[in-house]
Amino acid sequence: MIGKFVSRKYSSITITAYSMLCGSIVLLPISGLHNRLYLFQEWEVWVWALGSVLISTILAYILYTAGLKYIEAGKAAILSTVEPIVAILVGVLVFRDVLTGWQLLGIVLVLSSVLLAIFSKRKNSKNLQQPVPPSLHLSLIKSKRQTFKVL
């Protein structure tokens, strides 16, 4: 919801920069990374770390916040809940990861939640769009006339 609000005022790159900066300030002290600094002596670690940061995090976040200008925040929230499922499927299909029971349960729960949200919105919108019965419509017209007479 906040992303939708600020996306009208700031560019997606600005939003991403501040989000990543705030996230880094909060996470770095508690990440335990200072205990593994020796890993960064290898150039391959830097390549994988930069690729992960630039492509998987920053580019994805920029595209998400840029997309908020074009779709409703509620739809974006529903769409973002599917991201972990896509990540799991890419891991299994591309990188030959093993699908665990917990991951499968998570996929089922996320998809169930998305379907529940979609169908409950449709049901609510149908209830709101039902025509007003003629008898109620006439009584509303009469009450409006009486209101005008009083005024």
Descriptive account of the structure:
The chain has 151 residues and is an all-alpha fold. The chain has helices at 2-7, 12-31, 43-67, 73-80, 83-93, 101-128, 134-150. It is globular, with a radius of gyration of 25 Å. It starts with a helix and ends with a helix.
Summary?
By secondary structure, this protein is mainly α. It contains seven helices and no strands. The protein has helices at residues 2-7, 12-31, 43-67, 73-80, 83-93, 101-128, 134-150.
Topology overview:
Layout: H1 2-7, H2 12-31, H3 43-67, H4 73-80, H5 83-93, H6 101-128, H7 134-150
Helix pairs in contact: 2-3
Low-confidence segments, given as residue ranges, are 143-151
Task: Count the E strands.
Answer: 0
Compressed to H and E, one letter per element, the order equals HHHHHHH
* Number of distinct helices: 7
Which percent range describes the beta-strand content?
under 5%
**Helix proportion of residues, in percent?**
over 70%
> Could you give the distance between the termini?
42 Å
Whole-angstrom Rg: 25 Å
Shape: globular
Characterize the largest beta sheet: strand count, sense, and whether it forms a barrel.
none
Structural class designation: mainly alpha
Q: How confident is the prediction overall: mean pLDDT?
A: 79
